[in-house]
Design a protein that fits this description.
This is Fumarylacetoacetate hydrolase family protein. It comes from Thermalbibacter longus. One of its GO terms (molecular function) is metal ion binding. With 304 residues, this protein is an alpha+beta fold. The chain has two domains: 70 residues, no CATH class; 217 residues, Fumarylacetoacetase-like, C-terminal domain (Fumarylacetoacetate hydrolase, domain 2, Alpha-Beta Complex), CATH 3.90.850.10. Helices cover 15% and strands 29% of the residues. The chain has five helices and 18 strands. Strands 1, 2, 3, 4, 5, 6, 7, 10, 11, 13 and 16 form an eleven-stranded mixed beta sheet that branches. Strands 8-18-17-14-15 form a five-stranded mixed beta sheet, with no helix packed on it. Strand 1 and strand 2 form a beta hairpin. It is globular and about 50 Å long. The C terminus is likely disordered.
């Protein structure tokens, strides 16, 4: 099942005919205070709502996708947890130190939105395409054996990163949390439709140029380990998001006028745009220096 947010942050399900069926009315019984409550309410009560959602998706024609404005499928999670590294980069190096950071929900944008590069003196701005996990129930210190049961579904994330800011120049909260720096789309695919999350292909095309193109099988630490470890630090709630990290071998600069298409097989793709009032420029193509530096290290990479 594909759950999408659209127009004025309604929720819908993509039916068998590829149209979008509005299910927002089903959630009014839970008295949501605003759009940010719709997804957590849906996830929390999904078991009881699923039969009616499936009936609607199969029984009625919805809105054509080209007649709606898709929004970020996650609106206001209590937390966005991002992995630092977490890919082998095509090597057989030993596992890196497991580390992560929180990204501000203020940064969220969705399909068709624009990433605005701030005037801060970053050395470069990178795209980072990632598989993102949407949490399906409250999880505190969940065991690895039970961790996959805490997942609702998967979506696509592009972690926009400003390099060279802060004391060390390593991008974490400061370089990652500018408004518009968390792009999600096009919808959430429930976990039953992704039987093997390590058999997906992640790609990024920037103004028609292929950049990132890597398999999730290169992921260093599996999803159940991530959920278990993160939940031992901070309680996870329905609708929270864990972004599983990226393979750095296809990173490249984002700059004014770019059109960015991020895709993951089995989920879909979405487009966002880039604006920079300063019109800064960097070389086109893949940032080979960053790719080589990250691949060479046997510990936490210098560029997250």
């Amino acid at each position: 099942m594909r759950i999408a947010a659209f127009d004025d942050h309604k929720l819908g399900v993509v039916g068998a005919d590829g149209t979008l069926v509005d299910i927002t009315d089903l959630l009014q019984q839970y008295e949501p205070l605003g759009p940010e409550d719709l997804l957590p309410d849906l996830i929390t009560h999904f078991g009881e709502l699923k039969p009616e959602i499936e009936r609607r998706a199969g029984a009625r024609a919805g809105l054509p996708l080209d007649r709606v404005r898709l929004r970020s499928p996650v609106t206001r999670p209590t937390k966005i947890v991002c992995l630092i590294g977490n890919y082998r980069e095509g090597t057989d190096r030993p596992p890196q130190i497991l580390d992560f950071f929180f990204k501000s929900p203020e940064a969220i944008i969705g399909p068709g939105d624009t990433v605005v590069l701030p005037p801060h003196p970053a050395t470069i701005f990178h795209h980072e395409a990632e598989l993102a996990v949407v949490i399906g129930r409250e999880a505190k210190s969940v065991a690895e054996a039970d961790a996959m049961d805490a997942i609702f579904g998967y979506t696509i994330f592009n972690d926009i990163s400003a390099r060279g800011l802060g004391r060390s120049g390593i991008s974490s909260f400061l370089g990652k949390s500018f408004d518009t720096f968390a792009a999600f789309g096009p919808w959430i695919v429930t976990k039953d439709e992704i039987p093997d999350p390590y058999a997906l292909q992640v790609t990024v095309d920037v103004s028609g140029e292929r950049r990132q193109d890597y398999p999730t099988s290169d992921m260093e630490r599996p999803i159940h380990e991530l959920v278990a470890y993160i939940s031992s630090v901070s309680t996870l709630h329905p609708g929270d998001v864990i972004c599983c990290g990226t393979n750095h071998q296809g990173l490249g600069a984002l700059q004014d006028g770019d059109v960015v298409v991020t895709s993951i097989s089995g989920i879909g793709s979405f487009t966002f745009y880039v604006r920079d009032e300063l019109r800064r420029e960097w070389p086109r193509g893949i940032d080979r220096e960053t790719a080589q530096r990250v691949r060479a290290v046997g510990q936490r990479p210098a560029a997250q």
